[in-house]
Specification:
66 residues; mainly alpha; Methane Monooxygenase Hydroxylase, Chain G, domain 1; 2 helices; 61% helix
């Protein structure tokens, strides 16, 4: 352990490693809404638009480097 000299600490962490998990969860929600026969077309359209907006925001934030 005395020979360890090149370490300078930890890099700042981001939540970037969680982006794929969040994308999968949003995709699952999207699939459930699309398959729901009890929702009207207008409700589906509204909910899917909201999910699409969340997906786009998540993708945009994933592209930004901390």
């Amino acid at each position: 352990m005395a020979n360890i000299t090149g370490y300078s600490g930890f890099d700042a962490s981001s939540n970037a490693q969680r982006v794929p998990i969040r994308q999968i969860a949003l995709f699952q929600q999207k699939e459930k809404i699309e398959a729901d026969t009890h929702l009207s077309d207008a409700d589906k359209k509204t909910q899917l638009a909201a999910l699409e907006q969340q997906m786009n925001a998540l993708t945009a934030s994933a592209g930004a480097k901390p």
